[in-house]
Design a protein that fits this description.
GO terms for molecular function: [heparan sulfate]-glucosamine 3-sulfotransferase activity. The chain starts with a strand and ends in a 20-residue tail after the last helix. It contains 15 helices and 12 strands. Helix 4 packs across helix 5 and helix 9 packs parallel to helix 12. The longest helix has 47 residues. 42% of the residues lie in helices and 11% in strands. The C terminus is likely disordered. The protein is α/β, with parallel strands linked by helices and 436 residues long. Bound molecules: 3'-phosphate-adenosine-5'-phosphate sulfate. 3'-phosphate-adenosine-5'-phosphate sulfate binds next to helix 6, helix 13 and strand 11.
Length: 436
């Protein structure tokens, strides 16, 4: 049998049958080629079957290359019709050894030369080469596969090892504007600016310079949270963004809005203080006209009086925020011992200790107030509009105000569980935010 290896790589068998007698002759005539009497069958299984049948009928001895077994599934009938004595010797196939292959090839090439068919010889050689290289191909394939597996394993190990390595240092994210984490909600004239400025000196705090009035002015509220965020200073991760608007403390809707828009995690700072001692100075308007009615009694509808009923406003905030989210700063202590009050604020905001040291503050005798040492130790004092001289208040008006605020301050003490120095002894209780 000889193989025909077509250009399209399909293998076809061309089998030749030798009559036993002629074959014997051929052998005896030493290397004289056998006379091919068979016929080619390549594609048609029917042709093959017929050819095989005819050969059988003629009594031909079949010599079929094992290559032709390729067609076996197509034929559905055994293709190797071998007589018993030929079975072992006539097989050419995967077990083909070099010597056999050589003889097979040379016999083919001789026959080809004889035929002078160049194309046939080329086909035969290609066919033989195909069979010849198959084990090498398999070997190469196996080597390639092994190399691939080894590379994959190496890659996996490398990836695992890389996971254990510390990542390269990345650049810190750029500063961003953030919604406030904390708001100083009030109270007016109690030292809200001083508290904010002192806190701003802390490296972990970014404070808004001006009052934002987002929750107390409808036109600003309408601009939305993105506008509100846009009013905030740029801050780095880990920094607390703080704004102060003392009007929030007395605005009815502010606690509800703040809770809804900033969440229950928002920290609230409230600073309360007693009125400053009356001193020399020009009143913008006499205090009496601001807090007393025509009959000379304290006017409960006066804005100044209403603002000073602290427990009422505080109760409203505590309806919307848990008590542990709100910290009250003693405004008087902030003036006298700022580092002590700021230690408590740092604790409340979980800030690293920074402002809790006395050396962080410098007393400014001209102003009569402490100034804070900011970043790079620069001294920062409040502007001339803070720490002003107050107009004198008559002792009669003061007594009226104290009497009015006594029950309110008691309720505030009950609500907060704290007694502030400015509340005085129980019989002297009275606090007003009447500074003008
Ligand atoms: N360190 C320091 N420097 C200056 N002033 C200080 C300081 N600490 C507290 N205070 C007192 O703060 C008062 C002003 O309060 P506020 O900032 O809350 O006022 S406002 O509501 O923002 O208008 C301000 O009151 P006025 O003097 O009436 O301005 C001061 O008495």
């Amino acid at each position: 049998c000889k193989l025909r290896h077509r250009i399209d790589n399909s293998i076809h068998c061309q089998c030749q049958w030798l009559r036993p007698k002629q074959k014997q002759d051929a052998r005896s005539q030493s290397k004289k080629p056998a006379i091919p009497i068979g016929q080619e069958f390549s594609r048609s299984s029917r042709q093959k079957a017929e050819a095989i049948q005819e050969a059988e009928e003629r009594g031909d001895e079949l010599k079929v290359a094992e290559f032709c077994q390729i067609y076996r599934p197509v034929l559905k009938t055994p293709l190797l019709w071998l007589s018993e004595q030929k079975r072992s010797s006539s097989l050419i196939g995967p077990s083909l050894n070099k010597r056999r292959m050589h003889s097979f090839r040379s016999s083919k090439s001789r026959r080809s030369r004889k035929k002078g068919g160049q194309q046939l010889r080329a086909d035969d050689q290609r066919a033989v080469r195909h069979e010849d290289v198959r084990p090498w191909r398999a070997l190469l394939l196996r080597i390639g596969l092994a190399a691939l597996l080894a590379a994959a394993a190496l890659l996996t190990v490398a990836v695992l090892l890389r996971g254990h390595r510390t990542p390269p240092p990345s650049l810190p994210p750029p500063p961003q504007q953030q919604l406030p984490h904390c708001i100083i909600i009030g109270a007016r004239k109690c030292g809200t600016r001083a508290l904010l400025d002192f806190l701003d000196a802390h490296p972990n705090v970014a404070a808004a310079r001006s009052e934002i009035h987002y929750f107390d002015k409808t036109d600003r509220l309408r601009r939305g949270l993105s506008w509100y965020r846009g009013q905030m200073p740029h801050s780095r991760p880990g920094q607390f963004t703080i704004e102060k608007t003392p009007a929030y403390f007395v605005t009815e809707a502010a606690p509800r809005l703040a809770r809804r828009q900033l969440g229950a995690n928002l920290r609230l700072l409230l600073i309360l203080a007693r009125p400053r001692d009356p001193g020399a100075g020009r009143p913008a308007r006499p205090l009496e006209r601001l807090v007393l009615s025509g009959s000379g009694r304290v006017n409960p509808r006066s804005r100044m009086i209403q603002t000073s009923v602290y427990h009422r406003h505080l109760r409203r905030w505590l309806r919307h925020f848990p008590a542990d989210r709100l910290h009250i700063v003693d405004g008087d202590r902030l003036i006298g011992e700022p580092h002590e009050e700021l230690r408590l604020v740092e604790q409340f905001l979980s800030l690293p200790s920074f402002l809790n040291r006395p050396e962080q503050f410098v007393f400014n005798s001209t102003k009569g107030f402490y100034c804070v040492r900011g970043r790079r130790q620069r001294q920062r004092c409040l502007g001339s509009e803070k720490g002003r001289q107050h107009p004198p208040v008559s002792p009669v008006t003061l007594a009226k105000l104290r009497a009015y605020f006594e029950p309110h301050n008691l309720r505030l003490a009950e609500l907060t569980g704290r007694r502030f120095a400015w509340m005085g002894r129980p019989e002297q209780l009275g606090a007003v935010a009447y500074k003008v």
